[in-house]
């Protein structure tokens, strides 16, 4: 009997938690509670998805600016995995890596229009 696929523990860093809080606050102000709930549901699904498969289709390694297997995963790739009302055009991505202890560490949740290099955590910068 085949072993079930490993599910990884996914943890948000302090900056990722601040990103999430700011994103939710902004979404409520600009689009209302219902839209914020849809975005929150989508983010939770994306976190589950990378926890199930950190190298899932849609994720991209970015070795030119990051080290040690860091990846990005745009929320749009989890959009169809959410039941109920969906966001039309999610605009954020997760910046994450699988640590040596097997934990998936989400370092940032960033708008796709942001300059990634400028928002990298120190330990994700080239040469770290």
In the CATH hierarchy, the third-tier topology is known as YaeB-like fold
Number of strands: 5
CATH architect. name: 2-Layer Sandwich
> If you average the pLDDT, what whole number results?
86
Using the CA coordinates, give the radius of gyration.
15 Å
Order of helices and strands: EHHEEEE
Helix/sheet category: alpha+beta
What's the CATH first level?
A: Alpha Beta
Number of helices: 2
Major sheet characteristics: 5 strands, mixed
Question: Keywords, please?
Answer:
128 residues; alpha+beta; YaeB-like fold; five-stranded mixed sheet; 5 strands
Structural description of this entry:
The structure is a single chain. The protein has 128 residues and is an alpha+beta fold. It has a single domain, classed as RelE-like (YaeB-like fold). 30% of the residues lie in helices and 20% in strands. A 5-stranded mixed sheet has the order 1-5-4-3-2. The longest helix has 20 residues. It starts with 9 loop residues before the first strand and ends in a 17-residue tail after the last strand. The mean pLDDT is 86.
